[in-house]
Amino acid sequence: MPGIIPSEDAQEWAKLYTLIFPPYQLLIESYGKAQEVVANKERLDSARA
Predict the structure, then answer these.
(1) Rounded to whole angstroms, how far apart are CA atoms 41 and 4?
(2) CA 47, CA 8: separation in Å to the nearest integer?
(3) Number of separate domains in the chain
(4) Which of 6, 8, 19, 48 is most buried, by CB atoms within 10 Å?
(5) How far is CA 35 from CA 16, 19, 20, 31, 46, in A?
(6) Does a structural domain hold residue 45?
(7) Using CA atoms, how far apart are residues 9 and 14, in angstroms rounded to an integer?
């Protein structure tokens, strides 16, 4: 499965995947936001009441 082993051309593969399977772009954005939340030590939506 692509993405398991990091490679130099991972971003190029991701671009290609978004052309073939557009929802993959949403996954990339979601992952990026999740990493940002963790890095900024923000409170998770699931922890908000």
Answers:
(1) 26
(2) 36
(3) 1
(4) 19
(5) 22, 24, 25, 6, 15
(6) no
(7) 9
Short-list 48, 28, 49, 32, CA closest to 40: 32
User: Distances in Å between the alpha carbon of 20 and those of 27, 29, 33?
Assistant: 14, 17, 23
- 47 lies in some domain: no
Residue range 2-35, pLDDT digits in tens: 556 667 888 888 899 999 999 999 999 999 999 9
Domain membership of residue 15 (yes or no) is yes
> Is 48 within a domain?
no
**Token digits of residue 30:** 């979601």
